[in-house]
Amino acid sequence: MKPTQTESGRTEPGRRKSARLLLVPVLAAGLLAASGAWETAAASESCTTYPSDSGQTGNVKCDSNSGVRQHRAVVTCINTGGHKWTITGRWVYRNRVSSATCSVSSTAGVYSIGYDRRFRG
Q1: Which residues pair with 58 in a beta bridge?
Q2: Strand 47-51 with 70-79, pairing
Q3: How many Å apart are CA 9 and CA 32, to the nearest integer?
Q4: HSE of 31 in the Cβ direction (CA atoms, 13 Å)?
Q5: Which DSSP symbol is given to 105?
Q6: DSSP-derived secondary structure letter, 38
């Protein structure tokens, strides 16, 4: 016997709920997982940021245990007048260094270093 629904859309007591109602949350969870919306703390802890000796280049390296497929440096630069801007390095695969240089003429240096991550690609 098929379950019947009341006018309000609820299943009558003692009847099984429709499988379609359960499918929506399962599909939503699958889409979130596929999009990389659930990132682990381990992924963020396995990437290292460091400036060059000159202080003009920011570097990022993510190791093979990070779960990250590709990463790139996101460097905020600052010049002697206090003006700040952001630059990005190339996308690179795990265990490689992505770098972004603020200045080659010593007119600006690294203010902060961050990174973007891709879990696919």
Answers
A1: 51, 100
A2: unpaired
A3: 28
A4: 6
A5: S
A6: S
9 dihedral zone (left: phi>0; alpha: psi -120 to 50; beta): left
Residue 28 in contact with residue 53, Cβ under 8 Å? no
- Segment 19-36 mean pLDDT: 37
Token digits of residue 95: 């265990």
Q: How big is the chain, counted in residues?
A: 121
Count CB-CB contacts under 10 A for residue 66: 21
Q: Please tell me the predicted confidence (pLDDT) of residue 65.
A: 76
Q: From the CA atom positions of the chain, what is the Rg in Å? A: 24
Give per-residue pLDDT as tens, 44-73: 458 999 999 999 999 999 987 767 899 999
Q: Determine the Cα–Cα distance for residues 60 and 68; give it in Å rounded to an integer.
A: 12
Supply 40's token pair.
């682990």
